[in-house]
Design brief:
This protein is of the alpha+beta class. The protein has four helices and nine strands. A hairpin with a 4-residue loop joins strand 4 and strand 5.
């Protein structure tokens, strides 16, 4: 048998291959953009089975923004920076913070965050599991969004409600 010398392999990449790889990358990026997926951190109790029902009941659009897919359970987002809902956050203890009742659902406003960052962070009060809604927009938009979210949250068990000074 005669030994055949090893031929060096040609490791040059053709232009056609480079263009094919570039086109594939563009298609993948465009595909992810079409799905418009957002990363939203899950709440500590997002795995509570009742959070699945909350997510299922959320509206397809909120404050004029379409719903986006999120990677974590118990989370929903609308728009790219506008509104996020997280189910399964820690339930609030009694607080002197502003509490508003919207269509039978009590929400507590994190006034410090609103003053500091201009972001409305509202958490259900007296519902289990608790739901947090974050809105980066006007107060009027946040109020309208809470109206739209009332049916989403109302199905959670109500264990207590907000009281004012008149109730004490």
């Amino acid at each position: 048998m005669q030994d055949v010398p090893n031929k060096p392999t040609d490791r040059r990449v053709s232009r056609r291959t480079v263009w094919g790889i570039c086109a594939s990358v563009v298609v993948l990026v465009a595909g992810f953009g079409a799905y418009q997926v957002r990363w939203v951190s899950p709440a500590p109790h997002a795995s509570d089975e009742r959070c699945g029902g909350v997510v299922d009941r959320t509206p397809d659009s909120l404050a004029g923004q379409p719903r986006k897919w999120t990677f974590n359970e118990g989370t929903v987002a609308w728009g790219w920076g506008g509104s996020v809902l997280r189910c399964g956050v820690e339930e609030l203890p009694p607080t002197p913070d502003l509490c508003v009742s919207v269509n039978g659902v009590d929400w507590v406003l994190d006034e410090a965050r609103l003053d500091r960052d201009g972001v409305s962070v509202l958490t259900t009060y007296g519902r289990s599991p608790a739901v947090e809604f974050v809105h980066e927009g006007t107060r009027e938009e946040a109020a309208a969004a809470l109206t739209d979210l009332a049916d989403t949250v109302r199905g959670l068990p109500r264990e207590s409600k907000c009281i004012g000074l008149d109730d004490v």
